[in-house]
Specification:
The protein is of the alpha+beta class. It is 53% helix and 16% strand. It contains seven helices and four strands. A hairpin with a 4-residue loop joins strand 2 and strand 3. Helix 6 runs antiparallel to helix 7.
């Protein structure tokens, strides 16, 4: 643990570490950023997920999805990664999609396809009729909130 952050809260420490990670991106992360930009998605890199006390590589708020770019290090920790993904999903309500470095460099179509699938799923959930069916008592509130956040037109 760094001495200069000992007295800080967990969320402040995560914020500091997130900024440090942003300054040391891997070539795969830089390539993935370019893919997200090319497809026109707004995203946050090294996003702190406060409820689960985790940092994800990329977060796309519109899709409510986070992306993890896994290098060689992750080959030996698949169980821990799965547990972490589940924790983020449960506590922050964010789905995690993982890509390996190789996929980022060599399989642009697979990444694009996964993003479009997620976008289709999100759009079907945000149709006004669907909201009224799933949440009849809270529909007005949900629709207003989604419109305010520019998710629903």
């Amino acid at each position: 643990m760094r001495e200069d952050t000992k007295h800080l809260t967990r969320s402040v420490k995560l914020g500091i570490y997130s900024k440090e990670l942003t300054n040391r991106k891997t070539p795969a992360e830089i390539a993935f950023e370019k893919i997200l930009n090319d497809l026109g998605y707004l995203f946050e890199s090294q996003k702190v997920m406060l409820n689960s006390s985790a940092i994800v590589d990329y977060y796309v708020p519109y899709l409510k999805v986070a992306f993890e770019i896994d290098g060689e290090y992750h080959n030996h920790r698949k169980d821990k990664d799965a547990e972490r993904s589940k924790k983020i999903r449960m506590k922050d309500g964010v789905r995690i999609i993982r890509f390996t470095n190789r996929e980022v460099f060599e399989d642009y179509d697979k990444i694009r396809k996964r993003l479009k699938q997620r976008e289709s799923a999100i759009e079907s959930n945000y149709k006004i009729e669907t909201i009224h069916k799933k949440h009849p008592r809270a529909a007005k509130y949900i629709i207003r909130r989604l419109q305010r956040n520019h998710v629903l037109k």
